Each structure stands twice: as C-alpha cells, then as structure tokens.
What we know:
- The protein is an all-alpha fold.
- Helix content is 78%, strand content 0%.
Amino acid sequence: MLKIIFLFLMASGLPVAIAMAGSSLLYILISGNQPGLTVIHRMIGGIDSFPLLAVPFFILAGNLMNNAGVTNRIYNFALALVGWLKGGLGHVNVVGSVIFAGMSGTAIADAAGLGTVEIKAMKDHGYDLEFAVGVTAASATLGPIIPPSLPFVIYAMMANVSVGALFLAGILPGVLMALLMMVTVAYFAHKNGWGGDIKFSSSRFGRAMLELGLVIAWPLGTWALVTKLGLPAQPVVFGAIVSLFALDRVFRFQAVLPIMTPVLLIGGMTTGLFTPTEGAIAASAWALFLGLVWYRTMTFKMFVKVSLDTVETTATVMFIVAAASIFGWMLTATGVTAQIAEWVLAVTQEPWLFLLMANLLMLFVGCFLEPTAAITILVPILLPICLKLGVDPVHFGLVMVLNLMIGLLHPPMGMVLFVLARVAKLSVERTTMAILPWLIPLLGSLVVLTYVPSIALWLPRTMGF
C-alpha cells in the first residue's frame, strides 16, 4: 500500500519530498500501526546527523567560488594549458570542469557557472552550438565525482561510511572520465577538421605548467614534512599556506589558489588536521577569503545574496533528506526492502549481475528523481544486498552517484539538461539530441568503474581509510 500511495502522489505532480512524507503519513493513518507523530520524530531524527553539518558549508563554498569571479580565472588557465590542441575549447571545457568540480561539488553549479562562459566562448569561435552544449553537459557530471561532493556526503550519512574515503575514491575515476571526454573531443576535432583556438605560446604554456606543477608539488612537499620528518601538522600547513600566498603575490598566478581548494580539503582530512565536516567549514572560509580579501571580486552585498541562496538550497536538501528518512524507515518497517533483497538474491548470487541490475535501476531512477532524493531512497534498498554479496559500500557509492549524474542529462527531470537548454537558448529536444553522443564516454566510464573497483578503492586504501 505504501508504494501505491507514493506512486499516486508522484503521478499527481507533487514534489518528490512531499510525496515521500505524505505517503508515509497517509499509510500510518490508514494502518493505525503507529501514531501520526512518528512522521515528525523520524523526519527530525533523519537530519539529526553530524556529517550533515557539512552540507550547508559545501553549498556555501561552491556558491562563493561561483560568484567571486573565479570562473574566468579557471577558464583562462585551462585555455593556456590545452587551448592550443585540436578542438581546443572542447578540451578547455573538460579541464575547466575538472578544476571547478573541486570547488562546486554539484553538477548543476558547474553547468550554470562555468558552462555559461564556455558555451559563449565556443559559439564565438565557430563551434556548433550542439557540440558546445554536449561537451558542457558531459563535463558537468564531474562536479560530484571529484571532491568535494554533496551527493557523497548524503550517501556517506545514509550508508554509514567515511566521507573522506568517498572523496578519495572519486579522484581517479574523475581523471578517467575526463580523459575519455578529451578523447571524444579529439575524435570530433579530427572528424570536423578543427584546429587549435589559440596559437601555442611557450611562455604561456610554461606558466600554466608552472602553476600545475606547484599545485602538485606543494601538497606533496607539505605531506612529506608532516609524515616523513614528523613535524607538527598545524605549523607546517600554516607556513605552507603563507608561502603559497606570497608566491601568488609575486607571480600573480591565474588559478593556483582556487585549485588548491580540494587539495586543502583532502590534505587536511588525510593528515588529521580536521574532519570532513570541519573541512567543509575550512573550504567556505578559504573561498570567502579569496573573494572578499585576496581577489576583492566579491562585495558584502554579493555575500549576503550568496548566503541567502545557500540557506534556500540547504533547506531544500534537508527537507528531502528528512522526508526520505521517514519513507526509508517505512519501507524497512513494512518489509519492502527485505522483500526486494530476497527477490534479487533469488535471481542471482553473482555480484557482477547484481551490479548490472543495480546500474539499470539507478539509471532509470535518475531520470525521474533528483540525486539527493534518489540516494536516500535507494541506499536502504540496495546497500544490504551489496553487503551480502561482498560489494564494497565505498565503491558502490561512487557507482550510484555516477549513475544519478548521468540521469541529470535526461528528460523528464534532468536538471543539467534544463539549465543548459536555458543557457544556450535551445529547445529541450535539441539539447537532448546534443547530449546523446556524449553518453558513450559516460557509459563507458560507468562500465569500467563498476567492474574495476580498484580504480576507486586504491587511493582510500593507500591513505588508510
């Protein structure tokens, strides 16, 4: 009965969160098994979680970076690095999204923020609008894969796994996805005879490589001082940050400081300097300092607007989590999750076949539900089966989030699809057709990451998670 009521409310056009909470309340009132106040208690209990404190701060950090003029710096850095290759701005689009993913944590922020700059630039350089929209949509899926990631935080809370382990698990898969997208760009460039969009300049390229080398060498050097020489972490990190700002003042780098956001986050967690929740606060403070003090591209009025947008987004996410908590509890209490687990295990005991079935289910669900709601509904159903079949929950979390990100590119509920249709001033139908060729590298990445779990698990295991 619970499932029937939920599907009826969804079909009537109610938002998914209201449909979940409403169906649970109606079922309790009709069955009489629990008092009606159970809904309120379970919803409050669902968001009474320490890891969820990271949600508003990651949202705030992404919004601050998106509104502090950082997107143009990232774009110019990526242009200097790969803009001279054939199909240059397509490669810039992918590299820019890799960098921006380390600050935004969501696919929609990537598409709306960096996508606006990228699509206009590609259109001005004579690229097909459909190609520009397609590569922007595909690269936006990197947002929640490369840390920090809002969906990873929600999954970690639901599955009771380490946020830090999930963040580390997303790094190599994100790199793999970016490489496959760049191979796809190269294919289209060869097919259409596209050249580079800027002339190769050894000085400009060398400067970009210097910035990239600093981004790699700086955290490795700091980590070596702390772990190999045994120096205290806090003074070493503080001194390294001061030296980084001094170098930026001297050389006036394009994007070193914004790129350092995920580096500081991961480095702080792995060295024990702060927890993932405290890392979210650190990321927000870093973004706020860059926008208000260092680059001075953000005004107090802009900060107030960003804060209000963050409150609105956080309230929406938390309400979905609260509604999904009571709905997930009802699914468990009524035996629905156990029945599904029994049915799946009766069909197969093979992990590879279960993963195939789970991928198909998650791709389908991702077309109709936004990721937060989908995660909170699917985790109680699928995670017990994973544990019984020996599938690592961190690996499964990565696979789930990637499936749901691909779902954001499809009608009827694909938010990235609608955002890019609005940005590019294309119809939803033309935008959908533009995205279709880019499903090949995305689905290829999904297959590889599903059946080669070591790609996702190597870093977390190496770092002791």
